[in-house]
Amino acid sequence: MESRQTPRQTPRQKKSSGSGLAKTAASSPSSTTTSSSRQAPDAVATDCQSSPASSSAWSRPQRFVPDNAAMDAERPMENITVTVRFRPLSPREIRHGDEIAWYADGDTIVRNEHNPSVAYAYDRVFGPTTTTRHVYDVAAQHVVSSAMEGVNGTIFAYGVTSSGKTHTMHGDQRSPGIIPLAVKDAFSIIQETPSREFLLRVSYLEIYNEVVNDLLNPAGQNLRIREDLQGTFVEGIKEEVVLSPAHALSLIAAGEEHRHVGSNNFNLLSSRSHTIFTLNLIDLAGSESSKAETTGIRRKEGSYINKSLLTLGTVIAKLTEGKATHIPYRDSKLTRLLQYSLSGQGRVSLICTVTPSSSNSEETHNTLKFAHRAKCIEIQASQNIIIDEKSLIKKYQNEIRSLKEELEKLKQGMLTVTPFKDGGEDDIVLLKQKLEDGHVKLQSRLEQEEEAKAALLSRIQRLTKLILVSTKATQSRFSQRPGPRRRHSFGEEESDDLFNNLAYLPYRRRDMILDDEDIDSADGSSKEEKKSRKHGLLNWFKLRRQQCGNTGMARWDKSSGSKSFTSPLTPQSESVSAPIEAATLNSLVADTAPAYQSPEVQHECTDNSENYSIQDKPLTSMKSTDHAELLREQVKILSGEVALHSSVLKRLSDELANSPMKEHIQMEITKVSNEIKVKSGQIASLESQLSKSSYGELLEQLNEKTFELEVKTADNRVIQEQLNQSPTGQCDNILTTYFIRFTNARG
Ligand SMILES: Nc1ncnc2c1ncn2[C@@H]1O[C@H](COP(=O)(O)OP(=O)(O)OP(=O)(O)O)[C@@H](O)[C@H]1O
């Protein structure tokens, strides 16, 4: 699969429109808000502000033709969506007698309590009781849906330490953050889009002390940032294909384990690094005031955190100045990686998290000014395109058809040819010879093309296993077809099964999250609770384990009419539904209509690891490379689960020493240990199957590599031909690429 992006566009700035509520018009971003503070009480700093929520940033993206300068002018300019989220006063702030210094005045204005003339307007302001679900719906959902249409998107949280970035981006069990909500949404969009196919890959990195580390691969340390025609990228970063929301979230949870976290004066578990989760999704650390730095290490981290943020501030200031010729993206790793989002590519949503407290009034004011400046950046979102390999199939099919026609004509010619009346015997022999030669030549070309077509089809079949499709699209297409069904087709025939799985049912089951989210509270929690919140995602998986347990979750297999057991986290059976209490979920399961489960992913989830195998039947008709690929996928997912369980085990062991509920924790430990044992057994069993299928696989790989080379050459030729021939410069069979980044910025 190839992706092509529009060439880089120059950053664009919107001239102060003076629209909205504003009167302010200072040209320098830093003075903009200062001057606003001199306004009458009702005046609000809104220059560069497009009308909130209803602005163009909310409209669905149009399909624009890339690489076409003439069309550039027609693309609507959009501002970054800028929102501000207040958290409640923390118990610590209340204990210290802090008062409210800043507050949400309606849906779009933040006002200073002591000086009401100081006020700023944004696209939306969320008060301290707003749920993360609501923040997601307003500030992130449009970026996610655009990303699913091929428009790059970046959502980042920015705010001082302990202002609520992690709470907003990752969330916890009761209140899932933007990242898990976006992942779920991405998968439900796939489910709702029968006409398209998706390949989702994720990577997760941290920028710690200006060093880029791969959170999905502990060996990937100090990675280099490189540039190519498609933009900046991190060299050697691991990209995992994800097959389900839970699969994506298990990768984040495993990645979080490798992340740098430490205590400062304000936050027991403060993120010490910026992180970027790319769904082919970014969490930034909080800006440090010296008040927060407790040790030398923290000071060093703080200076690096601030370096990135200082550069981010400078970049944003320069972008909004309009006249700047040099934008210092290269001055920090963070701005380098965000360059394309900031310079106008794709949709951007900036969520600024703030505390209302008087003790942080100055820091909050700085964040508000930063957010206000950012609103002045304009973006021009453009769509990326991917050429589907099926266009190659189309080409082959056309060629084969015309060759067949040619051949047919020739054959007919041979049969109907009548000897020339006056021609000699020699003429007839010559003519026959010519026809036979032509026939042999065409036959051999046809055979070659047929072989190439078969190889291409088999490659497409293998790739198809990684492609996620809506069940709505596939049921009719595949039910009539013999052979294995698409193994990774998302939510295949899940409609009845949706009640089992919140991940696939964001709309119908959201009410359940919302009920829980209403508990979204100020920070009144103990150290352990805080820890478990920070490990919110891990807890999700803990709950998943409770749902499925050692005995697995019963499902009905429609095809066989028998009950099967599914592994809790493996594709198809997974869910990110942990916000629902296990008991609630189990009762839902009991009420559920029978659900079909794709046989290719159906595996036994019993305590007996020897029994663990991917069902043989569908696999016997698969090539050994397919089989091995499938086994490897399963090993990868199971290894992720083992890593996850191990981290839960570690946390439980830590908790055991201090907790009064020793017996309960001990039981949990035993349960988790057993699961690790079972899964390790399953991995061993899969690995032994893997080694058996290695030889055949090698041979096939050899063939495949040879063929890949041919396909690539042909692919380039076809793309070029299509581009040359298309009057719009557009290729047919456009698929979108998904590049949702989530930034959780320290401000
Ligand atoms: N909107 C909110 N509602 C309730 N509690 C919140 C909210 N936002 C943050 N909190 C609580 O405030 C505390 C600090 O939040 P969080 O860890 O998300 O801050 P942070 O900005 O990520 O900090 P750091 O930059 O140091 O990592 C946490 O205990 C969190 O649960």
Automatic annotation (TrEMBL):
Residues binding ATP: 159-166
Compositional bias per record (Low complexity), positions renumbered to this chain: 24-37, 49-63
Residue ranges with Polar residues bias: 1-10, 561-576
Keywords of this entry: ATP-binding, Coiled coil, Microtubule, Motor protein, Nucleotide-binding
Pfam families referenced in this protein's UniProt entry, alphabetically: Kinesin
Similarity field: Belongs to the TRAFAC class myosin-kinesin ATPase superfamily. Kinesin family.
PANTHER family the UniProt entry points to: CENTROMERE PROTEIN E, KINESIN-LIKE PROTEIN KIN-7K, CHLOROPLASTIC ISOFORM X1
Protein name: Kinesin motor domain-containing protein
